[in-house]
Amino acid sequence: MNLHALRLFYQAASLGSVTLAAEALHLSQPAVTAQIKKLEREIGLRLLIPQGRGVMLTEAGRHLAAEARRLFELEGHIEETLEQLKAGSAGKLHLAATYLPANFLLPKWIARYKRAYPGVGVELSTANSSQAADLLLHYRAEIAFIGGIRLDHPLLLRTPWYEDEMCFIVHKGHPLAGARVTLEEMLQEPFIYREEGSFGREQLIALCSARHLPAPPVGLQMNGLNETLRVVMEGYGAAFLSLLETREHIAAGVISRVEVDGVHMTNPVSIYTRKEEASPPAQRFIDMILAKS
Q: What stretch of H or E contains 81?
């Protein structure tokens, strides 16, 4: 079926006049009439009957006009959706992130983004750094937020985003709570170590190695942040953790920070994208957090 002719017929049917349809479409009346006649011959049915200065629909014409209306409304919806996709206000945004940004940085930005673009579906996958990078490389995520390392990959672009301070913490009633001490003094405490491969554990060991000091004794090993914090809250040992992970508890007064002379270490969080152009929803999300961070 000739869709151009169908559009002309639908316009004439909607306006009740071939002449008015021609004017609305900026075409000549004979051209519109010829296309409608050609459509009638193509489908083998009479669609319009002249009536005074206008036209009347036949039974077939009424059915075809109703279906044409559905078709052109769908066409309009498709065009609107495509415009929304180009504008970044529709579609789906897949994010991947390591634990720190997923839990302490991204929730605020995801909430703001959803308020600004409610038509975009957002999905967040929490993973370790290598898994987050793989999700991005295999097109299962459009942005990856990776903390703890500055990963360089030939297919990925890295944008620095946040530098989180590392800190030593103890129970609020500990003799070192709120004190300023040397690293040697701090390392006399039994430490609660996170699992092997965790950023805080590796940074603490690297710090000791750089200062030619033995690593602190392992008082406990805990496979999780909350477990580590709970043990400190209960009054045992010290831990070396991210300030983002601990500041709410420090502010609440249930744990306390220890200032250690000459120690300033950070946990970098970077934004990763593929080197090809980001989708409009992804680019809008990145622009939002970089503009207001």
A: helix 59-87
